């Protein structure tokens, strides 16, 4: 006898398989959108672990430091002070293992959006009275 959780798992498996097919035909954008849908459904319906790992990720990276992660999406985070020539005081660089859309939160609870369309490093420049990056959420 199947229960609601079993049915939901079957639906999510189907969506993930179809997303992967579409991803190879239409490009990475479709796959990342489908993966985000699957992630939301998995967390909301089943209370399970997302295919994208822990979310949000607690990073706690301060100015002048960096930290590496054994996370399926986020590889490394670095925060640095920018030069006098830049209108923003700080820059956070995030290295990702797959395309994703991130929300980065500093110690003042200001949140910055970052769309990573490819693997590798991506950055956001920002001003803050407390520039420590506390967490990164995949959306």
Adjacency order of strands in the biggest sheet: 1-8-5-6
Segments where pLDDT lies below 50 for 5+ residues? 22-34, 41-49
Order of helices and strands: HHEEEEEEEE
Largest sheet: 4 strands, antiparallel
* Rg value: 17 Å
Q: Work out the helicity level.
A: 25-40%
Describe the structure.
The protein is α+β, with helices and mostly antiparallel strands and 139 residues long. It is built from two helices and eight strands. The strands form two sheets. It has a four-stranded antiparallel sheet, with no helix packed on it. A four-stranded antiparallel sheet has the order 2-3-4-7, with no helix packed on it. Strand 5 and strand 6 form a beta hairpin. Helix 1 packs antiparallel against helix 2 (28-46). The longest helix is centred in the first third of the chain and has 23 residues, at 4-26. The chain starts with a helix and ends with a strand.
What secondary-structure arrangement, pairings included, does this model have?
Blueprint: H1 4-26, H2 28-46, E1 57-61, E2 65-68, E3 74-81, E4 90-96, E5 100-106, E6 111-116, E7 120-126, E8 133-138
Antiparallel strand pairs: 1-8, 2-3, 3-4, 4-7, 5-6, 5-8
Helix pairs in contact: 1-2
């Amino acid at each position: 006898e199947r229960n609601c959780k079993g049915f939901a798992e079957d639906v999510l498996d189907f969506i993930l398989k179809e997303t992967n097919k579409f991803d190879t035909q239409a490009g990475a954008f479709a796959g990342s959108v489908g993966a985000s849908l699957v992630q939301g459904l998995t967390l909301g319906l089943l209370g399970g672990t997302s295919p994208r790992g822990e979310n949000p990720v607690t990073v706690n990276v301060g100015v002048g430091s960096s930290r590496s992660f054994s996370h399926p999406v986020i590889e490394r985070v670095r925060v640095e002070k920018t030069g006098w020539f830049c209108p923003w005081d700080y820059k956070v660089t995030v290295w990702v293992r797959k395309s994703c859309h991130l929300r980065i939160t500093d110690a003042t609870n200001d949140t910055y959006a970052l769309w990573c369309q490819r693997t590798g490093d991506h950055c956001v420049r920002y001003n803050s009275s407390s520039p420590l990056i506390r967490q990164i959420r995949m959306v």
